Amino acid sequence: MQLADPIFLIALIPFVFLIFLRKEKKYLGYSSVSHLKEAKSLKTFIRRMPKVLCFIAMFFATLAFSKPQSDYHETAITFQGREMMLAIDTSFSMTGEAMKKIRDVTKEFIKKRKNDLIGITIYGTDAALVVLPTWETQLLEKSIDRIKAHQIGYRTAIGEGILTSLLALLEKDLGEEYEINGLKKSLNKERGLGKYALNFAKKVEKTGSMKNKVIILFTDGIYNVGINPVRPLRLAKRLGIRVYVVSVPASGETGVEYEQAVERTALLKKGIESTGGKFFAAEDYKEVNQFYEEINRIEKDEIVAEKVVKKKDLFFFPTVISIGFLLGMVLIENIWLKFP
Questions:
Q1: Residue 46: helix, strand or coil by DSSP?
Q2: What is the largest CA-CA distance in the chain?
Q3: How far apart are the C-alpha atoms of 19 and 55, rounded to whole Å?
Q4: 313 near 69, Cβ under 8 Å?
């Protein structure tokens, strides 16, 4: 414990002198049995208590004015909200009207989110992080305006988009121990998660609940390059992160035969639903509203806004103690001593 204003302790000096003067006070003594009897009585002892209580109260009051503080400690500023990533398809099939629809839906979505952290990733032939989860609405809207079709390639790597969004949500947990390429290789299996991905999932699970973390894909649902989207969805499912899809009709060629496109969309939908998420159609006004309502139903959790290193003020405790002793003094002088 430290004192921010120890100079106030000087105020105790007069009281110390008063105590010593009281002890050294001289008087003329004489023999008296009555004095001996009085010294043994409880009331005589209590009669002397107010002065003692006054000294103690003044001591703690002076200590409170000196501002006692704890040593430096880290404090987290938190609030209740959700963390989400908007993963936007920028492949060739999203040219023109499809990209305009994505911008309209995402901007409206951002405006409706209060106290929610939102980030943005984009994916084409590869995937890239645009903005880490933030509360800065203007930054998010400007970032969406700058997104263009085939910005990072003409093809559609939905799997990379999901994985990049997952890692953006778990960026603090990745650390130096795990590498993105190692996770990608561990996920790229026909069934289940590889050992590397499993160890990563176990580490993340120890940090707390993922129930308020969400990924929202804006895509036509047809992938034609990269890892199978079902594989990173397994990791999302294991971690309890829900993934949703807002389906946007393709404006251009997808590069996939119709039957294959239907099959891949069905597999993606099944993987999405396994995480607890759903498919919504962007061209259907009712479904878009259902999408907003669905996100609103997702449970909020504690989000750490920032961590501050500071000292904690402890003046409350000596203040309460001082008031307690003062009340005791008042009660004894004005109530107890008036009883016969």
A1: helix
A2: 120
A3: 9
A4: yes
How far the first Cα of the chain sits from its last, in Å, is 46
CB 244 within 8 A of CB 216: yes
Collect all residues with Cβ–Cβ distance below 8 Å to 208 and sequence separation of at least 6.
none
Q: With H, G, I as helix, E, B as strand and everything else as coil, classify residue 305.
A: strand
Q: Which two tokens mark 119? A: 């980030």
Three-class SS state of 29: coil
Phi, psi of 58 (to 5 degrees): -65, -35
Strand partners, 78: 304
CATH code linked to domain 77-306: 3.40.50.410
DSSP 100-118: HHHHHHHHHHHHT-SS-EE
Query: 11-32 pLDDT, tens per residue?
Result: 667 766 666 665 555 444 445 5
CB 120 within 8 A of CB 191: no
pLDDT tens, residue by residue, 56-86: 777 778 877 777 777 666 666 667 788 899 9
| E strand spans, the chain | 2-3, 68-69, 73-81, 83-89, 117-123, 127-134, 213-219, 242-247, 279-281, 301-310
For the chain, the helix, strand and coil percentages under 3-state DSSP, each to the nearest 5 = 50, 20, 30
Write out the two tokens for 4.
Answer: 């921010």
In the chain, domain spans: 2-72+312-338, 77-306
Q: What pLDDT digit, counting tens, does each position of 104-148 carry?
A: 888 988 888 878 889 999 999 999 999 998 888 899 999 999 998
Which residues on neighbouring strands pair with residue 76, listed in sequence order? 307
